[in-house]
Structures are given as structure tokens and as C-alpha cells.
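Late entry, written up from scratch paper. The run itself happened at the end of the previous shift, but nothing got recorded in the book at the time, so transcribing now.
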Amino acid sequence: MYSILFVLKFIVGAFASYWAITGLCQPLLNKYSRPISSPELYLGAGLGAILFVYAGIAWLLILFALYAYNYINRKK
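Output as recorded:
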């Protein structure tokens, strides 16, 4: 179970990183190819930021659940 959650966290983190990087670096990527598209820029940066927040909250909830599980089983 630990490995599945670990892998899921890194998959979500990878997608969040990709969207944040492509959104925030859109002006550099488009500098020589075509004009900047604002919807793409904001969509990429926004999705990246949202996924970073959700991945962080999910990781904290997972850590809390594991801590509570270990705490409950230790008292037996």
C-alpha cells in the first residue's frame, strides 16, 4: 500500500510540474515560434498551481492517516 501511494504522489507531482513549467515558460517557448497565447499561459500555470496544492494536501492527509494507523496499532 505504501508503494502505490508513493507512486501516485509522484505521478500527480510529475503532471503538476509539467503543467507549471509549460505554463510559466510559455513566453520563452513561444518567443521564436508564435505570439504568446494568454489562455494557454494561464491554463498551464493555473493547472500546475492547483495540482501542486492538491498533491500537497493529499500527501499531508496520507501522512496523517499513516501516523494515526500506526498510533492506533501501537496502543494494542
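The chain has one domain: 2-74.
(Scratch paper discarded after transcription.)
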